[in-house]
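ok so for the tutorial part 2 we go from a plain amino acid sequence to predicted structure tokens. step 1 is just haveing the sequence, like this:
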Amino acid sequence: QVQLVESGGGLVQPGGSLRLSCAASGSILSIYGMGWYRQAPGKKRELVASVTAGSSTNYVDSVKGRFTISGDNAKNTVYLQLNSLKPEDTAVYYCNADIRGPLGRYNYWGQGTQVTVSS
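step 2 — the prediction. this is what the tokens look like for a chain of 119 residues:
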């Protein structure tokens, strides 16, 4: 079994910064990619940023230049640095990972961490 544990959410003022972390643990043979999604109240879950095992990154247009995704392969961990935060960034942020274990390749989700941007 694989678990994704997120941390780093919280309340921050507009213009502030946060750093989210997501650590994968368990029976992991390979990690093909990891990413962050977010879901605001009344809205669909959207992909915010992703990184592949080869370190290729992808961002939704609304966060380009403000958010940075990075990974630590040795720690099976992905980070999301959130800078210049705006109230519209308020959402629950979910970690996602594409992982191969002994029983096959599956997509896993973390439990979510709340990010609230408000003065």
